[in-house]
Design goal:
The protein starts with 16 loop residues before the first helix and ends with a helix. By secondary structure, the protein is α/β, with parallel strands linked by helices. About 45% of the residues are buried. The mean pLDDT is about 95. It has an eight-stranded mixed β-sheet with strand order 2-9-8-7-6-3-4-5, with helices on both faces. Strands 10-11-14-13 form a four-stranded antiparallel β-sheet. A two-stranded parallel ribbon has the order 1-12. It folds into two domains: about 10-50 and about 295-399, Alpha-Beta Complex (Aspartate Aminotransferase, domain 1); about 50-290, Aspartate Aminotransferase, domain 2 (3-Layer(aba) Sandwich), CATH 3.40.640. The protein is globular and about 60 Å long. Strand 10 and strand 11 form a beta hairpin. The chain contains twelve helices and 14 strands.
């Protein structure tokens, strides 16, 4: 018999902590232990439902046989709705928009169309692990920049400036941030824009949670601050419209046309190569973006209450602290341990509480965190935090 098939080297460093922890959670569940899932940002797993009018728009499209291939960049009626929504956010000088199988595909296509092997993009740390997975897959050089926990998890602009080099092609900004729930302040966005323009960098503005903003705060889209800056703004239906399984996302390219023209064509080449995004589900886009969006008020109200439970419960635990989230549905707690992966693993095995270790999102050396999803029902959150508090007291004496 011949030897084992050897996988490509590009897969060696691909990790995805949010999903990887599920492997252990499934084993623990089989033992009969009650589980408390505070790990995956899927609202439909909990007590949130996709608005019925969105589902009806897709059913209607399917019954009308809109089941063939779509245009490679997306159907025009859906693109028009995306552009209208972008303009409501103040984005001008839009050069292109395209629809993908989730915002994740849009991000991967745009990174792979821009960054060569051995080049880099500036990645917020902590940040969503999709970016580091794409980085590994395409053999790009890691170049993380840090968010400042002492300053409400704002990007550290001095750190960004110090890490720009001749092989840097882009700056990623996740706003609101996953995993911290922080909203980037306009004055910080202005400084990041200046750096991008000075160094001929593209800004990747991941705004997938842009309608889930707490306490009547306002989100500023970085692309709205300068119509000449090369920015790709990413969003989709997954989070704002409670439909992650639809896998419908998009990118909106704005900025100086002459600067962006070749890059836009490179993106379009890759879009054509993968044929198209899901066709009938594109009929949900105008329903979502042009509709009344009445579900958002209730969703935000519930998330604010659950955020407040996390804040109040964790405040009673000596050794754990939490910067208050301002949007999305995550919280990123600091914990006094030697190894947050070990803590989360032991916690899961002993209590059934599923958290994602901070190391899965990146963090400053020497610091330790865990990410909480604030989507679960209030009683589930309260019980889970009580278990965390009790376990942590014992854990500190052991380790």
């Amino acid at each position: 018999m011949s030897g084992k098939i050897i996988p490509a080297e590009r897969t060696i460093n691909v990790t995805y902590a949010i999903r990887d922890i599920i492997v252990l959670a499934d084993q623990v569940k089989k033992s009969g232990k009650q589980m408390y899932y505070l790990n995956i940002g899927d609202p439909n797993v909990y007590d949130f439902e996709t608005p019925v009018e969105i589902i009806e728009s897709i059913n209607k499209a399917m019954l009308e046989n809109k089941n063939g291939y779509a245009s490679s960049i997306g159907e025009q009626f859906a693109l028009d709705a995306i552009i209208r929504d972008s303009e409501k956010k103040g984005i001008r000088n839009i050069q292109s928009a395209f629809i993908t199988n989730g915002a994740s595909e849009a991000i991967e296509i745009c990174l792979s169309a821009l960054v060569n092997k051995g080049e880099n993009f500036l990645m917020p740390t902590p940040g969503y692990p999709l970016y580091t997975a794409v980085q590994s897959k395409y053999e790009m050089t890691p170049n993380p920049y840090y968010l400042d926990e002492s300053n409400g998890w704002q990007p550290d602009v001095d750190d960004i400036r110090s890490k720009i080099n001749s092989k840097t092609k882009a700056i990623v900004l996740i706003n609101p941030n996953n995993p911290t729930g922080a909203i980037c302040r306009p004055e910080i966005l202005e400084q990041i824009l200046e750096l991008a323009l000075e160094n001929n960098l593209v800004i990747f503005a991941d705004e997938i949670y842009d309608k889930l903003i707490f306490d009547n705060k306002k989100l500023t889209s970085i692309a709205s601050l300068n119509p000449e800056a090369p920015v790709i703004t990413f969003s989709g239906l997954s989070k704002n419209f409670l439909a992650p399984g639809f896998r419908i996302g998009w990118g909106v390219v704005s900025g100086n046309k002459e600067v962006l023209s070749d890059y836009i064509e490179a993106i379009n080449k890759l879009l054509r190569a993968r044929v198209s995004a899901n066709h009938p589900l594109q009929y949900a886009i105008p329903t979502c973006l042009d509709g009344k969006q009445e579900h958002l008020k209730d969703v935000i109200s519930r998330l604010e209450r659950r955020r407040d439970i996390a804040m109040s419960k964790l405040a009673t635990i000596d050794g754990i602290s939490l910067v208050q989230p301002e949007g999305a549905f995550y919280a990123f707690a600091s914990i006094d341990v030697k190894d947050d992966t070990h803590f989360c693993t032991q916690l899961l095995q002993e209590t059934g509480v599923v958290l994602v270790p901070g190391s899965g999102f990146g963090q400053k050396p020497g610091s330790h965190h865990f990410r909480i999803v604030i989507l679960p029902q209030e009683k589930v959150l309260e019980d889970a935090f009580d278990l965390i508090a009790e376990f942590y007291k014992e854990y500190k004496t052991k380790y």
